[in-house]
């Protein structure tokens, strides 16, 4: 019998450790396909890795009439062409070469039959990925930074990248400015009207919960990377990211929420459902957190989404493996407290990460329940498509390792304007004014930071 093919191994080149990935990213800021997945260090505490890359071997965007299944199969074929590779011991690194990019919320239209009432005024491709054969990864647990090279990368390119990142970090960057203040697309009266329609659907038994969002936007000039650096300083979160788009645009995400993670075929999703504002006053801040933890409404909403996600994971996980190890945990961020749960499972033998995405995207915490009916109502009542908002930034490597965010607290800079969205789950006993205020509270720090630049 012939020997099985030998698994190729990535090469690793150590670099000086930096807690803030912005210093390394500055070296590739203007490179094609520049992308950063950022754990928000040193201020945010939960994330372990930062991952950045540029100059992809291929760029893959979903076509307007392409089915989700066909696009995911294209991603699969590109991963296969790059080829399997292992990370050498003793490194524990999340990425050995593969795909990095985004799925917009509207990628859901390529997976499910949905109406098409909301206006697609931003014209953002519903998914866009690069296939990368190298990455710079910082491990904040081990306090290391290193370049990781897939075996397919040429020796000359390795040397070029080592030289590039061995130089002193660039400190200059262009400014970013709003030409006018950020304004909502909906008036309070229009928000109330949409809220009342959702209540009518809930009373009629159509749905239990709908996540409704409003968009804020303003014309802008300058470099979105400068905006991102200011935002990550004001609002450090463990699932942040920056992705360059063609013609000077960019995706800027300051998300606190994981969508799904796969490591060694173990799956975890961490839905957020339940929010209270932070306060400068310590006693008031503690009271807000305690009120959230004790709130029957927020616990019921969170449990509704946990049940939905157990069902979503059950489509691709081994029967009997889906568990809820964490229910109603408190996580606190600079502007809000959140109620967070965890749902886990193990991928079935005949399924992979892209099957999991096909079965569970978009995330239940930002649609509602039941999911498809909630998505239909969102399309009817939100005047414009969400685009990136509530989609996902993710990496998927050649080993099948994956991590992904839910792109809340996220902005899109494109065609001379910046857009930002705030939303929340509406249930039978929701109050429209409280929900309206919460949708603003969630993005207040982002809007104020942009307006101060």
Automatic annotation (TrEMBL):
<feature type="domain" description="Chorismate-utilising enzyme C-terminal">
    <location>
        <begin position="188"/>
        <end position="442"/>
    </location>
</feature>
<dbReference type="InterPro" id="IPR015890">
    <property type="entry name" value="Chorismate_C"/>
</dbReference>
<dbReference type="GO" id="GO:0000162">
    <property type="term" value="P:L-tryptophan biosynthetic process"/>
</dbReference>
<dbReference type="Pfam" id="PF00425">
    <property type="entry name" value="Chorismate_bind"/>
</dbReference>
<feature type="domain" description="Anthranilate synthase component I N-terminal">
    <location>
        <begin position="20"/>
        <end position="142"/>
    </location>
</feature>
<dbReference type="GO" id="GO:0009396">
    <property type="term" value="P:folic acid-containing compound biosynthetic process"/>
</dbReference>
<dbReference type="InterPro" id="IPR006805">
    <property type="entry name" value="Anth_synth_I_N"/>
</dbReference>
<keyword id="KW-0032">Aminotransferase</keyword>
<dbReference type="Pfam" id="PF04715">
    <property type="entry name" value="Anth_synt_I_N"/>
</dbReference>
<keyword id="KW-0808">Transferase</keyword>
<dbReference type="InterPro" id="IPR019999">
    <property type="entry name" value="Anth_synth_I-like"/>
</dbReference>
<protein>
    <recommendedName>
        <fullName>aminodeoxychorismate synthase</fullName>
        <ecNumber>2.6.1.85</ecNumber>
    </recommendedName>
</protein>
<dbReference type="GO" id="GO:0046820">
    <property type="term" value="F:4-amino-4-deoxychorismate synthase activity"/>
</dbReference>
<dbReference type="InterPro" id="IPR005801">
    <property type="entry name" value="ADC_synthase"/>
</dbReference>
<dbReference type="InterPro" id="IPR005802">
    <property type="entry name" value="ADC_synth_comp_1"/>
</dbReference>
